[in-house]
Design brief:
alpha+beta
Length: 73
């Protein structure tokens, strides 16, 4: 299922989002980060995304399987 997240939903699931980003980087995805990406760096990134969502300059779509986030854009 594709969901449009609110900032509150992103904050609620920030650890899953960070894990997803770290997994993508370690798997070789070209997403603007070089391995190793630490959890702290991934959380910092997602906090900046959430701030941009709040000011209306960004949206977050996630692909979810139940409560498990499988992808984001």
């Amino acid at each position: 299922m594709i969901l449009s997240f609110t900032p509150a939903e992103a904050e609620r699931d920030i650890l899953q989002l960070a894990d997803l980003l770290m997994d993508a980087v370690v798997s070789g995805a070209s997403v603007g980060f070089m391995p190793p990406l630490t959890e702290s760096e991934a959380l910092h990134y997602w906090r900046s995304v959430i701030a941009a969502m709040r000011d209306g300059s960004r949206i977050l779509l996630v692909a979810a399987d139940g409560a498990l986030i499988q992808g984001s854009v």
